[in-house]
Amino acid sequence: MKLVCVGGGPAGLYFSILMKLQNPEHDITVYERNAAGSTYGWGVTYWGDLFDSLHGNDPASALAVRQDSVRWRDGVAYVRDRRTVHRGDEGFAISRRRLLDVLAVRARSLGVRLEFGCEITEADFPGADLVVACDGINSRLRARHSGHFGTEVTVGNNTYAWLGTTKVFDSFTFAFVETAHGWVWCYAYGFSAQHSTLIVECSPETWAGLGLHEASQAEGLALLERLFAELLDGHRLIGRAEADGGAQWLRFRTLTNRNWYRDNLVLMGDAAHTTHYSIGAGTTLALEDAIALAGALRGNFDPETALARYQQERTFALLSVQSAARYSAQWYENLPRYVDLAPDRMFALLGQRHSPLLPYVPPQLYYRINQAAERLEAFRRLKRWLGPRLARTLHSRA
Ligand SMILES: Cc1cc2nc3c(=O)[nH]c(=O)nc-3n(C[C@H](O)[C@H](O)[C@H](O)COP(=O)(O)OP(=O)(O)OC[C@H]3O[C@@H](n4cnc5c(N)ncnc54)[C@H](O)[C@@H]3O)c2cc1C
């Protein structure tokens, strides 16, 4: 097969690896508009089940990804001057640049052609069996047929900036700071021995009230460093280098498509769907798309059938994640509803932000119901654990 991937992000690179592993005879080219090693963003999070899935598909790249990842278990929240710690599931983070390097090296070693510095505007590749539009949220290939794809975009209310810092956090850290113009908060996590990601968010009123809408990148970073001084402990915030487009305040766009393919053109990763960054899932979903598309194409040379199967599988798998992402984004947009709760309660509800029920139940009541449900679950687990042991002891005495 002759395959073309437009976009050398996680989706395109991983798909090219999987297809070469399936059949080294496949002729695969990945076109990336940026130079090699140039990308936006800092570290990206993922969870253990992604590693298992990557390992099942390509142990070599999975092990390289794991080797360059950092891990954390605790979540820490700072609200005003109070600190709350919560022990959660083990999470991982890797530098986005490092992830792309690992995937690019692996793809090249398998014989994939990587063409950097190549901006593609048309899906016009004579002889290609399949053209994969994995060119991100602003996909130009998708935009040419947005009517056919049924693209819908919803713009979030809050503004955010994806920053880096030299402060290395060893826990997943949230900090909520009250200013004269409203709340500003950040989520921060380490992704290497030198750097952490720090995503700052606030309402548009707070953003304008603080003057961030008219501040230069340097002025904006200096203001944020003052607001988060205690958290940063003397470390600097880092914006984007000009070559990467400069630090930007954005409003998150949630994107969906009714159809994911048109003739031999198929959407993958952020070009097909986005989920709010507060659930840290976009890269995982992009990699899972690649796995699903490669799976649907395995031994199936009727593209129509393979692409229909891919679309069906992924739209179904995405339903719960997209719902979680929407509610999570809303939780932050409704921060005043939760922020004055006792810090441990507020943090507990932060952990419940994906819940479709939470927006409709008074927060204090929701917290109590959730606590009761957790106690009940703990009691059930204790019964499941104790029951057989008790039975065995009694039985052996009888
Ligand atoms: C603030 C923020 C935080 C995030 N944090 C996380 C996280 O912690 N965990 C997580 O899993 N996800 C996270 N994400 C989401 C994640 O970054 C994306 O979902 C993921 O990168 C999607 O991968 P992709 O390959 O589909 O697209 P992209 O990574 O966007 O790659 C697309 C590539 O296509 C190239 N391209 C675009 N147009 C063209 C063209 N015309 N010709 C050639 N090349 C082109 C681009 O240069 C780019 O390299 C975050 C996103 C944001 C905004």
Strand content: 15-25%
Q: SS-based structural class?
A: alpha/beta
CATH architecture level-2 label of the largest domain: 3-Layer(bba) Sandwich
Distinct compounds present: flavin-adenine dinucleotide
Give the % helix.
40-55%
CATH superfamily of the largest domain: FAD/NAD(P)-binding domain
Helix-strand pattern = EHEEHHEEHEEHHEEEEEHHHEEEEHHHH
Total strand segments = 16
Task: Report strand order across the widest sheet.
Answer: 3-5-4-10-11-12-9-13
**Morphology:** globular
CATH class of the largest domain: Alpha Beta
Query: Which runs of at least 5 residues are low in confidence (pLDDT < 50)?
Result: none
- Count of all domains: 3
Spatial gap, N to C terminus? 69 Å
Mean pLDDT comes to 92
Q: Characterize the largest beta sheet: strand count, sense, and whether it forms a barrel.
A: 8 strands, mixed
CATH fold category name of the largest domain: FAD/NAD(P)-binding domain
- Give the count of helical stretches: 13
Rg, nearest Å: 23 Å
Kindly summarize this structure in a few lines.
By secondary structure, the protein is α/β, with parallel strands linked by helices. Helices cover 41% and strands 24% of the residues. The structure holds flavin-adenine dinucleotide.
